[in-house]
């Protein structure tokens, strides 16, 4: 069985996803594309084996030739389109965030629970990264004892103009929140946020430093700096009772040149997480073929947004703040 | 267009290839399988989406539902099956070596040239490894000047019982010969071979040390040690006039534990070159869709075997030996 | 001129210092030793070229054959002995901490200022570590812009039995407080402390996580975990506006063995900071010869203890706490 | 007892040695200096605590205030001065090479044997490098089995004008010959040399590639490239039956900047081997105090030069060449 995929949105990420489906996803076919910019949709379709271009997102979802939907359109459209997919009983991979508001997140969860079927996967691609997977595997083997600290750094080369101090938390650290929940298998109890001064290269926003405490007492700290200038970098170290596990994503070559030994740092997340994006789609396709969900659920998407909101509140109040997220429903366990 | 692939041979490598086609090759479908061990063929077919099992290799090649053939059967069958594919005008990816003898290599080349179409790709997967590709890219950018040395190490954990000192050269260093020709874009003029003592763990064969000189004067040295015990490892450093490029295939995590910082070393080539194998098949499928050859040609397969034969002669005589390979025909440029 | 050094205290650190003076300190001579355990003093004296053993610390300080004093006796004796050295107008290198209480620190500072001469160097050896010095040098070159974050990890293999959650801060993180003040050249304004759960290997104390904000807005975070089991490790990363500087203290060899690539991790601080300890003594001797102070001053010793006390207060209250340290007197600038 | 050292020659290396004795050698004193350039001698003496400047090398050696002599004058003077030191019964540390000719080497050896006392240490400083020492230690522990290969690279940034293809072997690879003899504890049986083309930056000389076989069958290969442009680098990997040991001399920090992760490469041997040079002098001083020789003996100096001469012969003839070095006399074992 070949899974016929419809793609909504062919911006930078959407076009990348199209290419990934075309070249690297066994058992899948890019069959339909929708984008408000029809010309761009045509161009992507042509370069990826000739998918049909569809006029509206609704028609694409309803199309009987479409088995599953990849939603890579702007954030505000995620929840309505996800709801439409649930309505149509079609599996959907939704780019993060699941929704623009917590209320919309809850609506998607309610719809899924009503439908009694898990159809939504949220695009937290790090869950498919070989480094985090090896870290999870090492934790599962339990050679090093229980986790105590998880140190994270998340740096972008250049933040977009609209980025504010709040959005540094809301847009970026959700990735760390999701991956920490994935690795540690538990939720957060308290969060605190401290900000260093702004970089002179981006005076309008502050880098952020989150300290989050899980319910069992692991301290997760996250540096989020969106204007590092030197490149995109994601680091992580899990410190356990008797040892530590560190992400080590060295590029495939090093150069010696002009007094230096040099490794390239990736310019953005698409290069850094290329294999994670590819394996995310491969995993999604396999999960459809085999009927068992993988990756981040709608609940995971909600939990990440909920926790990020608590961090913003902690940042505003400069106070250690309780996270009042409900327990994960059995449906999502 | 989906490329329908027939697979001949589902031993360790063949079964791996089946899985790769099923999960990670966009635009391809595993449609038919042949193996003398029919039970094994059925089992692989079942786990990979249900390809048809075909009785003979000849029938598989002739099957109108098969667009392209992947030959992963024993070495001695490579040339006859490649010739049958050329006869049937079907593209074939042939596991290395191209043939069991130089004469058979020449027969495949002659058949292809007669057919006036390049149909054969030889499975030197390293040409698709991100490390070697980045090395080639760095050479192409020419920031570091012309190459002078290429240092290679090739280590297996445990050699098979049948392995002899000659086979260490013939079976293993062909990979280095092929990748050196790929990176440097030229052939070898002279070769010398020196052997250290045998490891006490494998007294019946010697490790080998090759020193090969290209026509333009690059020195390529290769350590081949098939009984390293600690794991599989392939290293390479290209030393240029003004700098050096080194393969740096660090695994995705490191552990600190019991007084040590530890990286895992892969147990064999399938783990080390997983992405190379995947990209080799993806590249082959794309080359069929787009009608332009990629990877090692039949001539490259011949050149590697020819050069390895010269190395064996050099080893026997302990003398610097001239390599009398003919120039690459225009057909293969 | 050879500096004749008297050593008070030949416990583990003192005996190490004796050996360093004997083998690696140009222009210095170990001339006198005092320790309550006279037998131990004799034994160390014998192994280090035959220094005189002196009955009391007071006599050693008064001895006209002693030009300078190294104080490596128990913490409670540091301040009285430092005061005696100031009284005798002899330079003293005092192992950290400068004193057992803040009040005693202030007494030493007052005595020095009265004497109008800087005689006390506190043994924060990290200021002589090649890594931190290279970090300071890179900051001074200002290629990377102003600092924003300084991430620190400080791990011991096995904490002593008497260690409490407070002492994790008071004894260990003072090193990070001192080196951060040295690198950033400023004091702290606010501190917060969060604790993960205790390791089951040391249930009586919690690891600690400090977040300290400098007056200009740099965030310095410190993980202090005294029961890591795997070894002693000190890491540091300074994140600046346009780049980052990371300590990289790899040992001189790596091994490949049994499926792993392995670096040794030092068992304790003496191995990790061997060259820092040596260069600290060499720097101290040179500073005596040349009459200009180096390393941590009495004020630096006081500032580190003062800030650590604020962290303990922050830890008890779980509140972001203001650090009310006075400005550095001109005398110490 | 303080060892009073006389230094002959204060060129680049000699001045460095003076500084090392002054700042980092416990139990030693730089007491006398001779150099034909008296002004330079005065200046070095002044900056290193005020040693006496002596008119001739002969007078310095004869001076009753000089206990031991460090010979850092031009190569041609090494043997005569070493002979004078033996005559005066004073220990001498002689910069490599021991002598300008093999005949002179033999004369020094004969003099020492006649004197019945080992007085000469040859300045092969690598024997004091932490990396090689850790490698020797790992071999001694024998966890990895017997050695099979020793891969060496030796690169300088810019070769001097007078350097020829022969001198690349004679001047540089002697270091690898000496350290291989030290690590493996045996002599060479056969040597071969292959040259790549010259770098366009130094067309008058070729880089060299040596393949040397020890008597027990270890293959030692050495790349010697004196015009690497990017910096000075010495690498080494010992491949044993069941694992490998690699030198790993990473500098103390790494930088992330402008799309790169960067380690500095040292510009020359003095930075790369700073601690080796320091420990060589410390070891020499200790050996004088304790009366037991350390480091490379006169015989080791002879053996290195002898083997290098065989390599030059092999290079000229392009033939695998037998090394006819006599067995090490018992006196030197």
Description:
- Four copies of one chain form a homotetramer.
- By secondary structure, chain A is of the alpha/beta class.
- The first copy, chain A, has two domains: 3-122, 3-Layer(aba) Sandwich (Rossmann fold), CATH 3.40.50.720; 146-270 and 308-332, Dihydrodipicolinate Reductase, domain 2 (2-Layer Sandwich), CATH 3.30.360.
- Helix content of chain A is 39%, strand content 24%.
- Chain A has a seven-stranded mixed β-sheet with strand order 12-11-7-10-9-8-15, covered by helices on one side. A six-stranded parallel β-sheet of chain A has the order 3-2-1-4-5-6, sandwiched between helices. In chain A, strands 13-14 form a two-stranded antiparallel sheet.
- The longest helix of chain A has 20 residues, at 165-184.
- The mean pLDDT of chain A is 96.
- The interface between A and B is large, with 44 and 44 residues.
- Strand 13 (253-257) of chain A pairs antiparallel with strand 12 of chain B, so a sheet runs across the interface.
